[in-house]
Give the backbone structure.
Amino acid sequence: MMPRIKLSGFLLIATLMPGCMLLGPDYQRPESPLPAQFSADGQPAAGQSEAAISSTWWELYQDPLLNDLVSKALENNTDIKVAVARVEEADAFMREVGAALFPQIDLDAGANRSRISQLGSTPLFNGAKPIRESYNIKLGTSFELDFWGKLRRAKESARAQALSTRYAKDTVALSLAGLVTSNYLQLRSLEAQIDLSEDSLRTRNESLVLTRRRLEGGVSSALDVHQAEVASSNLAAQIVELKRLRAVSEHQLAVLTGILDLNVPAGDITQLPLPPLPPSGIPSSLLEARPDVRQAEEQLVALNANIGVAKAAMFPTISLTANYGGESAELSDVLKSAARIWSGGLSLNLPIFDSGRLSSRLDQATAQQKQALASYEGAVRTAFQEVNDALVTVRQNAEREALLDNSRQAARKAVTISENRYKSGYSAYIDVLDSQRVYNDAALAHIQSRQARLIASVDMFKALGGGWKAEPQGK
């Protein structure tokens, strides 16, 4: 009865002692010196909070093909697969560290057969046999009592590292979705530029035919014909380059999505709705939605916990050992009460002199925590700058697109006037070519401004960590 009571006492000590003390600093989120809101010219919108951020922000463009491409990329991309594997590795490590808080019970069994010398210094009595057999089976445990909180701090660090890998995966996913969306928008923009250039080429070819007829009729000069030929050839060469860039964008999408034989059907960038803009004065607390900021904070949590691990290593290590089982000369007797064996005890190990090794490790852990703190503050400040830059870029690109649309319409009217004046003999053909060139450049600039405005919205979503949930604006 006494062995059972004493062994139960050891187990009770093992259960109660881990809650005694927890060395090291508890984590507290650093105070951020950032302004309360991003835009200084407005007040925070009522009811706006982190809930306004959508993780599936690419759906705001209302393009089923784009949604499918992003979905395929998040499923097939190799960078995502690597990030997922790192999450699984970190989760497994966290479980391994957490298991150290509980006893590990082992089953040990063995059988031994040996022969001793009959001519040795110790004679055999009573006809004892020189052949001896021994059988044993026992349950044993030996684990460290977490009296100073070293194991709990290690688990806290491992858990933070696991969360950090999850946010790292979210960062990769956010960046990947942004790459796919930007490449898709660029491809649609190139298609629009190709269509526009081909229409302009048809117009110039028609002008070239007309100019040749006028030359045959003695109305135009050969100079007009050669100028028309140069304009048509230059535009044809421009179309070839645009088609090359379109193919390159499609190939990039194929790599990002993992569909190497991807064939994107034709579309129209002007049909994509413009996603909603956040209101003026949005709170800077939205930065907490960014996975890279959360990743930096979890790394800070992990290194903060490591200080407690390093401090606890400077205190005595207390361990519990216990064994219970049976041992006999016959296998059939090994489980009988007379064959029982047991042992139990506590051990203490206290570092006395280590030439400053443990204190150096504490200094290292403290320095690493300071580095992580600086990295976290830097991540927050960079995120704040990126959001401000993105908001300004989106709004300025909207104004730029409106101005370029006016320029395009005016250039279109100038082409009509110059063609009519040339046909009536009031101006030279060079005026027609010049007006056509100006219109083509203005129309291309307008398409490129729409592309820039849409891609700026992608950068805004990436800076905010997601999309803004609001009613879409008009085109």
Q: What stands out?
A: The mean pLDDT is 83. The helical segments are 2-16, 64-76, 78-99, 150-216, 222-257, 291-312, 357-423, 429-464.
